[in-house]
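Is this the right way to post C-alpha cells for a design question? Let me know if I should format differently. Anyway, here goes:
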C-alpha cells in the first residue's frame, strides 16, 4: 500500500497539476510545506492539511490517508488544457465557427479549466453573477503568473 505522501502526489498529478509548486500556488498553500508533505520530508501531515488536500484534489480523505486500498478509487480528473483546446476547436468547427489561433484557444481552455476548478464540481454554471467574478479572478491570477 502506498504512503499518504505518495498518494498526495498521485492525487495532484491526477488533478492536472504537473508540478507541486503549481498546485501550491493555485490553492494558496505555502510551497515548501506542501512539497515537504508530498516528498515525505515531513513523514505525515495533520488531518487539517489532509482534509484541505483531499477537497482540493477531489479524492476521498480515507484514501489519501492510506486507510483504504479501495481499487474502485476514481480520482476526478480534470481534462488537460491540450484536450480542452482540441474539444473547443472541434466544437467551433461543428458550429461553423472558424477557431482562433492555437495560443488563444489554449488560453481560453486554461481559463475554462481553472474556472471550473474554482467553482467546484457540484456548482452549476447557470446565470449566477458570481461565476463571472470567478472567471475574472481566474484571468487575473493567470495574468499574474504569466507576468512573473
Amino acid at each position: 500500500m502506498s504512503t499518504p505522501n505518495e498518494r498526495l502526489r498521485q492525487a495532484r498529478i491526477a488533478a492536472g497539476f504537473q508540478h507541486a509548486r503549481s498546485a501550491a500556488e493555485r490553492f494558496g498553500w505555502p510551497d515548501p510545506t506542501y512539497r515537504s508533505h508530498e516528498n515525505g520530508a515531513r513523514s505525515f501531515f495533520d488531518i487539517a492539511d489532509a482534509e484541505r488536500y483531499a477537497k482540493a484534489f477531489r479524492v476521498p480523505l480515507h484514501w489519501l490517508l492510506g486507510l483504504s486500498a479501495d481499487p474502485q478509487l476514481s480520482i476526478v480528473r480534470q481534462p488537460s488544457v491540450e484536450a480542452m483546446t482540441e474539444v473547443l476547436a472541434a466544437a467551433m468547427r461543428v458550429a461553423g465557427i472558424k477557431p482562433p489561433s492555437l495560443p488563444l484557444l489554449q488560453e481560453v481552455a486554461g481559463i475554462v479549466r481553472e474556472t471550473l476548478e474554482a467553482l467546484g464540481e457540484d456548482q452549476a454554471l447557470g446565470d449566477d453573477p458570481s461565476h463571472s467574478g470567478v472567471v475574472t479572478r481566474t484571468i487575473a491570477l493567470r495574468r499574474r503568473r504569466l507576468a512573473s
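Format looks fine. Someone answered above. Worth noting: The helical segments are 4-14, 20-27, 31-39, 47-57, 61-64, 81-94, 102-119, 129-147. The radius of gyration is 17 Å.
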